[in-house]
UniProtKB/TrEMBL annotation:
Source taxonomy: Bacteria, Bacillati, Actinomycetota, Actinomycetes, Micrococcales
Span list, region Disordered: 1-23, 46-113, 370-402
Ranges annotated as biased composition (Gly residues): 372-387
InterPro entries with a match to the protein in the record: Emfourin (IPR049457), Metalloprotease_M4 (IPR052759), Peptidase_M4 (IPR023612), Peptidase_M4/M1_CTD_sf (IPR027268), Peptidase_M4_C_domain (IPR001570), Peptidase_M4_domain (IPR013856)
Protein name: Neutral metalloproteinase
Organism superkingdom: Bacteria
Cofactor: Zn(2+)
Gene Ontology BP terms: proteolysis
Domain Peptidase M4: 113-196
Subcellular localization(s) per the UniProt record: Secreted
Species the sequence originates in: Knoellia koreensis
Start and end residues of each Peptidase M4 C-terminal domain: 199-368
Main location as per UniProt: secreted
Length: 497
């Protein structure tokens, strides 16, 4: 079959191209934990992290309609007529070139390739939820074609929405299975597209945790509707089936019991809190977006199970009304979002209705709202941040950093909120790297680089570097996707040694 790449830009309500935020399903802290080990899995995880960084760098600042290197632009599919989805599944054939070769279009018979057929079905199930439950015609409510590429990379340990299409890796076979096996993962990633085109929640702090949580909520609802499960029948797991039997865990996250999804010697323990008592104050992972999302996740679970019946019908409707309503802002924090869900429940079901009462109670139980109806008084310090790093960069102290005896580099973020850190003497590094670090630390080069890198947009599921020179006390924060490739590679090598 001839190669038929089919790029399709996402547009917002004004018809302009969206920023194309890239959102992946595997939390970065899982990949980092895997990368720190030995053997094939560690090598695959390190390669996955490297591919993610390269992909984000390639995406930053260019239109999403541009094909990957090696691809050729062809006419994009037209929007559907409202009667059903328009799906196109392509096969990257183990390469990292998008979109790959078209293997199945809308209405075509099964291919016999499990990944391709699972992707086709998962895109359809997501379209079905939004269409039948909320009257939404695809991600943009205008019939946007749903595109996906399978067999991306070699043993690639991730799946992501890049602002244009879904991309699925095959997994390493030891920790992760192929990423098309979990339909809620497909729903999660496509919902990032819905959020981007509606509320546009900033990917930082509490707005970022809400962004992640909304994707978990609707990803779970896609699976529940597909299986015909009521709220009390669902397992409320995100990514069940992704782990191989070798892993001591059942899923990436649990909405029913955050913090219990896995506890594995290699991956560590699921770090998500269920209530504000466990809220994590951190500058890591864009303010802990993948960790603190457990709190609004649990609030939805409590509301949905208390209302009963099919979760997508009432609780899901309230969350959808909130996400797409005019009252939500990009910097919405937990307390504001909670108040908006209560208002949405009251608008749809009446003030004082059982539904509105249950929604309010759910937020009280997780500590976001107080029993008297106000905010809890503990916003976690990161709501309403507008996407800015809560810790400003210290002012440079001249060129003394050029002679720093050591440098501390810390990499955080990604889908799992992973952390990796190393403090190293500059003169102990290989000659070329020692020279590169000396140049980078000279004068205010690092501070200038940080300012330039942070001028770009924030990309969901991307990584952030904190670089410090302990003797001088200098410290800067740099988003990975905004770094020049030589600097990013230097950081990677320094952490890997």
């Amino acid at each position: 079959m001839p190669s038929q790449p089919v790029p399709s830009p996402v547009t917002d309500s004004s018809g302009q191209r969206s920023s194309g935020h890239r959102c992946s399903i595997v939390p970065p802290y899982l990949l980092e934990a895997m990368a720190g080990g030995e053997g094939d899995v560690a090598q695959i995880a390190r390669r996955t992290l490297q591919v993610d960084a390269t992909h984000r760098q390639r995406r930053a600042g260019r239109p999403t309609a541009t094909p990957e290197p090696g691809g050729a632009a062809t006419p994009k599919p037209q929007a559907d007529d409202g009667s059903g989805p328009q799906r196109v599944i392509s096969d990257a054939g183990g390469t990292e070139t998008l979109p790959g070769t078209k293997v199945r279009g809308e209405g075509d018979p099964v291919t016999g390739d499990e990944a391709a057929d699972e992707a086709y079905d998962g895109l359809g199930a997501t379209w079905q939820l939004y269409a039948t439950a909320y009257g939404r015609d695809s991600l943009d409510d205008k019939g946007l074609p749903l595109l996906a590429t399978v067999h991306y990379g070699r043993n690639y340990d991730n799946a992501f929405w890049d602002g244009t299409q879904m991309v699925f890796g095959d997994g390493d076979g030891q920790v992760f299975n192929r990423f098309t096996v979990a339909v809620d993962v497909i729903g999660h990633e496509l919902t990032h597209g819905v959020t981007e085109l509606t509320a546009g929640l900033t990917y930082q702090g509490q707005p970022g945790a809400l962004n992640e949580s909304v994707s978990d909520v609707f990803g779970s609802l896609v699976r529940q509707q597909l299986l015909g499960q009521s709220a009390d029948e669902a397992d409320w797991l995100i990514g069940a089936g992704l782990f191989t039997p070798q892993v001591k865990g059942v899923a990436l996250r649990s909405m029913k019991a955050p913090g219990t999804a896995y506890d594995d010697p290699q991956l560590g323990k699921d770090p998500q809190p269920a209530t504000m008592d466990g809220y994590v104050e951190t500058t890591d992972d864009n303010g802990g977006v993948h960790i603190n999302s457990g709190i609004p996740n649990h609030a939805f679970y409590l509301a949905a199970t208390a209302i009963g019946g099919n979760a997508w019908e009432k609780a899901g409707q309230v969350w959808y009304d909130t996400l797409t309503g005019s009252g939500i802002a990009a910097d919405c924090d937990f307390a504001t979002f909670a108040g908006l869900t209560v208002a949405a429940a009251e608008a749809r079901y009446a003030a004082g209705s059982p539904e509105a009462t249950v929604v309010r109670d759910a937020w009280v139980r997780v500590g976001v709202l107080s029993a008297d109806g106000g905010g809890s008084g503990d916003s976690g310090g990161s709501g309403g941040s507008g996407g800015q790093d809560p810790t400003p960069d210290p002012a440079p102290t001249g060129d003394s950093s050029a002679n720093a005896a050591e440098v501390r580099i810390r990499r955080t973020g990604g889908l799992a909120g992973q952390v990796r850190e190393r403090t190293v003497a500059v003169d102990s590094l290989p000659g070329a790297d020692a020279s590169a670090w000396s140049d980078l630390l000279a004068g205010d080069r690092l501070t200038t680089l940080a300012q330039q890198a942070r001028e770009g947009r924030t990309i969901p599921d991307s990584y952030t570097y904190h670089v410090a020179c302990p003797p001088q006390g200098n410290e800067v924060t740099l988003p990975e996707h905004g770094l020049p490739e030589p600097v990013r590679d230097l950081f990677h090598r320094t952490l890997a040694d």
